[in-house]
Amino acid sequence: MLKECIxxxxxxxxxxLNYEIIITDDGSDDKTDxxxxxxxxxxxxxKYYKQIHKGIASARNLCIKKSSYDILAFIDDDAYPHxxxxxxxxxxxxxxxxxxVCGPGIIPEETNLxxxxxxxxxxxxxxxxxxxxxxxxxxxxxxxDYPSMNFxxxxxxxxQLGGFNNNYWPGEDSKLCNxxxxxxxxxxxxxxxxxxxxxxxxxxLGYLKQHQQYGFHRGAFFAHGDINSKRFTYxxxxxxxxxxxxxxxxxxxxxxxxxxxxxxxxxxFYLINIIFLSVNTFFKKKLLLIALLAPPxxxxxxxxxxxxxxxxxxxxxxNKQNIYE
Length: 325
Description:
Strand order of the largest sheet: 3-8-5-9-7
Number of helices: 13
Order of helices and strands: HEHEHEEHEEHHEEHHEEHHHHH
Distance between the termini: 34 Å
Shape: globular
Largest sheet: 5 strands, mixed
Strand content: 5-15%
Structural class: alpha/beta
């Protein structure tokens, strides 16, 4: 994936553009060395740095410390840009009122079964709520939070913020965006033409661990008072978990049947939405197995996210500086 990413960038760079591609190896044990060495021998302006494992935030900050130019474009190594990505980015940044620009990470065509399942969840409103635009091309808009898998920012602003916060991963990008918008009063502009193709997790365990982390960190940032984390949407999974527990206790307690029917209505509407997800997935993905797998995975995702949000919230209240203690 890394080679695909670098070559896709190189193919679209204008001859008169001053640029550099900086790769940081954060203590990997894969074939990164071999891949990057072959790229450096074939391409100019590729810089490669290695460090012991310190996390993505630290690796990206090292890249910026070694960088020479005024615009920083972040992209993950499991993503690759659309052929017009760089041109569209440069055009948008001519507008000096934008502190940063960003765009969607759409699933590539060549993916495995699990990636397609997770993508079906991410592009569905019950899976990503109002944030489906991050995974599909939606209308341009200003945002106050965006993942760094496809994020371009002016270097002077990045440095004013002190770079990514090394205390957090994931969520270092959310912290940066919160400070960029609400402390520096800058604008982040999302445009569907700033397009990359971004792979999803390729196995169920990896996906569930990822969303556990999302829930935990969002809960901690909610406790910190970050404006871009104080959204009702983020609390809903925790309310859902509490609702299910209460419903279970009331059912065991054998309360009035009419009251129980009323209390089951939210669950009924939730299950209807889950069925719509399955139908929608079948028509979009054209595979019955994906349509059958997406609903239970989404339910598990909501439960894990909701539980970890609460855990993260209390971690953020108790120890703001180190939520992992």
